[in-house]
Amino acid sequence: MVTRTTHGNVMIGPTAEDLTEAGDATTREGLAAVLAGAKRLVPFPYEQATITQFAGLRSVGSGDFTLQPSANMPGVLHLAGIKSPGLSAAPAIGQWVREWAADAAGLLPKDAFDPSFAFPPRLAELSWEERKRRIEENPAYGRMVCRCEQVSEQEVVEAIRMQPGARDLDGIKRRVRPTAGRCQGGFCMPRLLEILCREGELAAEQVSKFGPGSELVVGDNRRIVPCK
Q: In whole angstroms, what is the distance from residue 32 CA to residue 25 CA?
């Protein structure tokens, strides 16, 4: 598969291998198969443009698409064994889960609920005139945090302040994309750490990649980043 994401990146793959023991790593053979398959669809020197690879485990279970409430624990819903076409089925599964949860909890529609959300604009997608105007109004738009994805300091600040706001590096990445580019955070990681400390009123050792257990620094870090 060769597919373009909503942000314009190209993804190729995946492979699938049945395992009898735990393991989640990319392999030389798997990468070769992905490249060969992609080149049959869209000839391109993918090796030269690769940023990162991903691997993970997916439980298969005894059947395909096990979607059912737990027989032993009220309020628990089992979603397992979702193989291909799991991605295509995900929106419909999400709709079913929402309806199930509403019925199970006795939820009622909220008439005043507004589902729209005005996401802050991406600087990289604005015209030069609009960029200039925003930088003149707020200089934080002119301080580049992520060079690969062209993310400004103000965009990171807005990702932290929005509701719900980002509370770790992956939360910021999902909202405005720093660390998603070619350097994989090599340039922007220290700056993101500093901004999270300042905006989230955190000590440096409290800042994590994706929650407790993934903290970035330990010990005396006052020389690393000016956090409280």
A: 14
